Amino acid sequence: MTAGRIALVTGANQGIGFALAEGLAARLGPADLVLLTGRNPERVARAAALVTNATNTTSQVQGRLLDVSDAAAVAKLAAELEERHGGVDIVVSNAIARNTPDRPQAEQADEFIDVANGGTSAMLHSFCPVLRPGGRLTVVASTLGTLGNLDPRLHHLFEDASLDEIDEVIASWRAAVHAGTAQDLGWPRWINVPSKVGQVAAVRAVARERRATDLAEGTLIAAICPGLVDTAAARLWFDVSREQTPAQAATAILDLLLASPVDPATYGELVQFGKVLPWHAGTPRDPELPQSSSPEHLAQYLAQYRTLET
Question: What ranges do the domains of the chain cover?
Fold first, then answer.
C-alpha cells in the first residue's frame, strides 16, 4: 500500500486529458503516482513517455490501457488500485469519443454515448467506492450539460434521478435516436447536448447520496467545464484558433482538484473557472443540422450553439 497520492486521468493521451496528466505530474510529489490512461496502446505509451521526460515532472508517471466503455475493465482497474494502493486520491473522467459534423448523428450515437455516458457511469460506479477521504473525483463536461439546454418536457427525467435511473434515461434516448423518434420526444438533434446533460446529472446523482460524508472528509465530487479549447475534436465544429490551449484550460481544473479546503458550493455541481454554473441554466435550441460540412452550413448551425461554451 502506497503512502503517496494516486491520480488517474482517462482519455489522457491527447488534448485536455494529456494537459491534466502533465499538470498533475508537475504539481504532485516524488511519492505520488499519475496514471495516464487511454485505449490506444501506442498513443498511451507515447504520451506517458512525454510526461515522464518533461523537465518539470516531479511525480511518478505510468501509462495504462483503459477503455471506459468497458465497465468490467473500469471495475477491474479500480479494484486493483484499491488492493495495491488502498484506493485513489484524484480521478478525472475525461474520455470521450469523437463526434464529427460530416456523418449523421445517429451513425455516431452508439460509440459517443458508450464512451461519454457509459464511461462516466462506470467511473462513478467503480471509483467512488475506492476514493480515499479528502479525494477528488471530477467529470469533464460542458456548459451544454445544464438542464436548461433541454426541452422542458425532458427535465423531469433528470431531476433527482439516481445514477441507475439516469442510465435508463440515456438508454431510452439512444433507442429513440435509432428509431427516429427522438425529435418528436423533444430531444435535440445534436447528440452532444443530451449526452452532456446526462454526464452532469450522473455526477449530481452520486453527489446527492454522498454529500454529507464527503464534505465532512474534505472530499470533492463535481463536473467540470473547461470552456472552448483548441483541440482536434473542437476544430471539427468551431473556429477555436483563438481559444485556450489545452494547457491553459487545464490550469483552472488543476486548481480545483488541488484546492484545500473544498468549497462546499462546488460540491456536486458543474464548475467553470472556479464558479458554479446553475443546473437550470441554458435555453433549448435545436436548429436544423447542416446537410453538408461546408464552412457556410456549419457556421450557420454552430453560431447558435457557440455562445453556450463561452
Answer: 6-284
Q: Which of 82, 79, 114 is nearest to 99 (CA)?
A: 114
What is the spatial distance between Cα 24 and Cα 189, in angstroms, rounded to a whole number? 36
> What is the maximal distance between C-alpha atoms in the chain?
57
Residues 93/139, Cβ–Cβ less than 8 Å: yes
Query: How would residue 310 be classed by pLDDT, with cut points 50, 70 and 90?
Result: very low
Peptide bond before residue 295 is cis, with ω within 30 degrees of 0: no
Report d(CA 224, CA 143) in Å as an integer. 9
135: three-class secondary structure by DSSP: strand
What pLDDT, in 10s, does the model give residues 66-118? 999 999 999 999 999 999 999 999 999 999 998 877 788 899 999 999 999 99
Q: 166-194 pLDDT, tens per residue?
A: 999 999 999 999 999 999 999 998 899 99
Mean pLDDT of 243-267: 94
CB-based contacts of 43: which residues, under 8 Å, 6+ apart?
13, 14
DSSP 3-state of 198: helix
**Secondary structure of 213-277 as H, E, C letters:** HHHHHCCEEEEECCCCECCHHHHCCCCCCCCECHHHHHHHHHHHHHCCCCCHHHCCCEEECCEEE
Q: Can you tell me the distance from the alpha carbon of 138 to that of 125, in angstroms, rounded to the nearest whole number?
A: 13
Q: Scanning the structure block, which residue is given the C-alpha cell 450515437?
A: 109
Name the region of 273 (left: φ>0; alpha: ψ -120 to 50; beta: rest).
Answer: left
The set of residues, in sequence order, having a beta carbon less than 8 Å from that of 37 and lying 6+ positions away, is 8, 9, 10, 11, 12, 44, 63, 64, 65, 66, 95
Q: Does domain 6-284 have CATH number 3.90.550.10?
A: no
